Queue: 4 jobs
Job 1
Amino acid sequence: MTQATDWNARIAALPGANILQTSQWAQLKRITGWEAIYRTWESPDGKLEAAALILLRDLRLAGGLVRLRVMYVPRGPLLDWGNENLRKRVLDDLQHLAAEKKAIFIKLDADVEIASGVPGEADERENLVGASTVTELRQRGWLFSQEQIQFRNTVLIDLRAAEEELLARMKQKTRYNIRLAAKKGVVVRKGGVEDLPGLYRMYAETSLRDGFVIRDESYYRALWEIFLQAGMLTPLIAEVEGEAVAALMLFHFAGKAWYIHGMSREAHREKMPNYLLQWEAMRRAKAAGCQEYDLWGAPDEFHESDGMWGVFRFKEGLGGRVSRTLGAWDYPAKAVIYPLYTRVLPRLLDVMRRRGKEKTRQQAGLG
């Protein structure tokens, strides 16, 4: 166990260090009812070898009569997954912790790559460490989760190259649209806390237009303010003649940047503001010392029928590579109750999504 105050400094050098494993993420999740557990694993000589921010929450159903405890390691644990002895030690401890805390299950979705490239294309490569990790999880009784919290797949951009090389890796149409946006008067500026109310309204408008569900305004305001205060978030806003038309939230930690929230309006879409936004995000992340930019999400199935296909085509044009990770896996510490939970959960989530969509419409002033 370690203190939250020095947590980020300790985990920053670990493989796979992720924004969702920081103490700021724990601070955010406490607001929504999660308890944070900080766990570390050290070598015999005291060197930090692995770490995990573990979230624990009690769910109350049937008017509070039924209490179900769940545990989640978002984008963790952090370790060298190719070290089989260390991997075994960490997984043993997580399973024991779930039993000790009387949780129904513990979920993990570590950033472990099982393959890169689009399936079936020439650049597809299997990752042997990812494959062996999946094999071990199955042998231990972990189950591929029906509840995938984060995107399994993403697009990663290597920022170590010069700006000219980054542009050269992009598709020709992407480069053209970046130049077009600048030519048409799109300007990108850094945002601050005073911009957050307007950015939430734009995000809500985007979610309703594009058909995805978001949380209420208080959640995003808390999230953005926590990371802004920590110096780990840069809001970027694209404007045309002083009017905000698109924006993104650029998170950064441990030499990596993430594009987690993007938003836009119908106004001036023909001026391609999102292209210039992404180029500015890459330039700013590179200037801040980040070596990699995670575009946060790609299709589960790389086919036009997948709801992420259109977004993926946009991201693909930016010149990154596809990274396919192992996804979320559950260890059912209470094997009898776990199947009941997985049957009830989809119905509960459907109700929450319907309510959330209506609340978003009201908060955005579109109801």
Job 2
Amino acid sequence: MKRGLAVVALCLLLSLTLTGCWDQLSLKKQLFVDIVGVDYAGESKRLAVSFVIASLREANQGGGKPSSLYMNATGESLYDSATRINQDLPGILSVQQTRLYLISPRFAKDEPLTGLSASGQFISNPLYAYLAMYDGDLSKLLSKKKVHDQTINDYLIGVLDDQLKRGRIPSNKMLHYILGGEELVNDFALNLFEPSGEGARLAGTALFRDGKYTGIKLDNEETLLACLLNGTGAANQPLNGQVEGKPYTVQVQQAKHDFRFVFNKEGLREIDLSLKLGVKLVEDGHFERKHTKQTRAKMEKAIEADLDSMAATLIAKLQKANCDYFQLGHELAAYHPKLYKGMNWRVQYPKLAIKPNVKITILNTGVLE
């Protein structure tokens, strides 16, 4: 197995080989790694691994102040890097409670992630850790002590937690990659951080094909729309757009998605993706302030057209990346196996007619309630 394929598997193995059982080692000797960052060292294929270790300052009975310890090492493998750190630290690294694995774009582009499913064989694995990408200097980011009065680990993980609760980002939990199987993790969109001021911010998602980063990204609005088209439940997400150059904002209250394969005698003709949204109109810079049935219908049609255009741009990016994020190939194989077997899905997917159809129902009677 390639070194990149086994990154998380090695992390999990590390938790077994370096920490042992809880009844054999004192809790005080455990160094709980909150974040693991993985990049290449310089122009080589050696791994530059960063560890952010959670700790408490001024610890006393009942609490203390959250703090973090940053360590990094370069090695032939993750295990080698961790071993080098353990030689310099009193205590033993433990990844049993790691909350985030953060990888660099060049590592993601070069090393497939489909092998993550193999790590399910280990007993102590951080199944609920996030997997994300950072388009910047990993060591510079993870060595920061504070971002907006929070430790760097609490800040990054807090951003992911909040956005996931709102339904604005894909989950990207290790559970998916470990237990989903290779067929489910080939094409996906990984949450993407980028530098911002003294810290970092979410900048959409990075598209992966066959487990490799394609270099193509979705921005934040496209990521939200992709989540809705993929069946993420509504949670008051704001959707922003423009009609005739003027902005509008709606809050999604209800969302229902579906897809339909359309055939002719030659085979698959097109795929229709439908999305029905019940929304509240929050900001309206274009339409009249007094809403009648006619003006509301006009607004619905205009917003539908705008979102259809956004969805078409999103789908074009997915097809350019040859990233089957919506897993349409798996759906076709499940419901029409004979047709799927006669296709070369990877070759034909970028050329398929995939048409979005967004339907809007405005639920409120005024611009603001």
Job 3
Amino acid sequence: MQALMAKGGLSPDASGAFFLAEVPDPVPGRWDLLVRVAAVSVNPVDTKVHARLASGGERILGYDAVGTVAAVGEAVTGFAPGDRVYYAGDATRPGTDATLHLVDARIAAKAPQTLDDAAAAAMPLTSLTAYEALFDRLGLTDAARTNAGREVLVLGGAGGVGSMAIQLAVWAGARVIATASRSESAAWCRELGAHLVLDHSKDMPAALRSAGITDVGAIFCTTHMEAHWRAMAAMIAPQGALCLIDDPSGPLDITVFKSKCASIRWEFMFARSMYKTPDMARQGAILARVAALLDSGVVRPTLGKTRHGLDPAVFAEAHLAQRSGRMVGKQVVVF
């Protein structure tokens, strides 16, 4: 099979940062699906893993895919060759930027029937991250219109994860406050259902008070936690909960949340597959639920940019765009 290799120690636009290689076809294990990949997306984690690769180190990146099942492992149920599936993969295994890929069937689901490959490939990682953050970490109820009276603040609402978090929280009946710093990203958040949009480059606590809101019970910070740390401490309600996904560059003072007895929780979408937790099949169930929401039109796809070809130059462009911090929605590469 062909695989796109990323080389460590090089910026995405450097010669040799990405290259094609012929590698042996993978053989499915007991729980695996062998998938013929049709499209993948590029996420912030791709650029972070590339940046952390040792100089000269090589790795197949990619943490989202849609494709067709070519073979199944002996323990797999519910899937058969020919099924169209989508999934976010496993950080401990080779990535999806290849023509063939192995994934544990328990963290995959049938792809949304109403979406083409590009739109479907944009959904798994961000959907899982947003769903787990809202319903497994922040304690919202994961059913339609069941969270009346609850408010959620989504920092970085126009990104891939934020875009899904807004829609899922609205579906669940919560009042959503999102943040964005540009007019086009603010408009995107409103289109997705945000009731209020704050500018995270300005004084958010003051803007929240100006809108007549003293504090919020749940905050989901999707990016730049250090820049927003004290603002979040000011905006969180007593006994509220904060969920984080990005890594700080250094220690942070958690005592700013002490007087409010606020909970600080982490969301790491790969934890279930990385540690083979007893409930790892919940990810497959979540993706099936999201597929149903997409097919029914309750949730809209978040595809922002489509690129074409398992080509080093194409992936270099995608990585540079991802690192710009100006993405609205998701970008996908169709093979």
Job 4
Amino acid sequence: MSAANQPVTYASAGVDTEAGDRAVELMKDAVRATHGPQVLGGVGGFAGLYDASALTRYLRPLLASSTDGVGTKVAIAQAMDVHDTIGFDLVGMVVDDIVVVGAEPLVMTDYIATGSVVPERVAAIVRGIAAACAETGTALVGGETAEHPGLLGPDEYDVAGAATGVVEADALLGPERVRAGDVVVAMASSGLHSNGYSLVRRVVQLAGWSLDRHVDELGRELGLELLEPTRLYTRPCLDLARDPAAEVRVFSHVTGGGLAANLARVIPRGLAADVDRSCWTVPPVFDMVRGLGQVPWADLERTLNLGVGMVAVVGPAGADPAIASLRAAGIDAWVLGTVGEDQGEPAGTDVVRGAKGVDGGTVHLRNGYRAG
């Protein structure tokens, strides 16, 4: 019998179902650790079950949902063969998007596509997701690992996730709460987070730098800096939203598009947020990317978070209580600017209006950045 006439099995096509089963066994305990009494059925069912009877205490519960991935940051994890931190990036990108409206996360599911299932690698990814879910109070109720030989290389993978949360209707945060006189409070990022890695990787590649290169300005190897997990703002932001002294109007998660574009999404039409670029020092990793690739500041601020990972818009008297609360939670915070009537384009400012399909307000950016 010729090779062309040999029997074809799923295994010979490149899919190892037994490896998938082993991966599930390795991750089960980590996933179970995110389950409270509301989760029914355990691990391995066709659907994750969550007892929503607690929602009956809500007068008008609104469900909030989000889905996202971590972009090409997975290429750094694969190159370094470090897979237990990328889950924090995934949870940060997904869960903290629903926190923006004041929603408390309830459940999350994940999806991993890979060229070849290596049980230990898949389990490491899921353990990271589970650890981040536990930190944010989110139950990891299901997931899928798909083996795609021929589409992805044996050591390649991508991850995505989706989460659902709930918020009482009269506690919903949003642009409609924002008023002239409000204050914009910045929350420090932990580094690059999970956006702009196509730019960062290209800069590093053209410079010929290896991931094990020690960078004095960073105080560690380049690869370790690039893999720094996304900061999770979930619980500090929810605590802040519940604090009447903070007068929280809305949050803005600084992800793809940078600070101004994401802040403009939560400013209503007719108002403008005035942001002073010089009120914080841009962390060294961002200045490294800029200098190494001769990246213009304008391009950098449209791509990376530049040290601000989340923003809160609070009432005029809410800035000091908000900053104190965030710092007590271990997050550096400071006043970024104020909100006022949109009176056109002040001289010496850069202007961003609306973003990502939102017909929103305006952000004025003034002064230059201070590099660390």
